[in-house]
Amino acid sequence: MLEINGQRFQEGDVVRFERAGLPKNRTRDYTITAVTGAGIEASAGGFSYGFTKATATRIGITHSPTSRNED
């Protein structure tokens, strides 16, 4: 598990990066495939990406609205 800005992230979570450089990357859903000592690994569209905790914080990691559990 990794905590950033009061939110907890773990393997299997679906996330977005609200301040990503490209607009389409701000609304793309990424699935966290691993949480490591260095940060997270996530996949989207068949590609894998690595984000340090600092990078994930800077580009605004948050849980995707499509993954929120309303129970």
UniProtKB/TrEMBL annotation:
Highest taxon of the lineage: Bacteria
Protein's name according to its UniProt entry: Uncharacterized protein
Organism of provenance: Streptomyces ziwulingensis
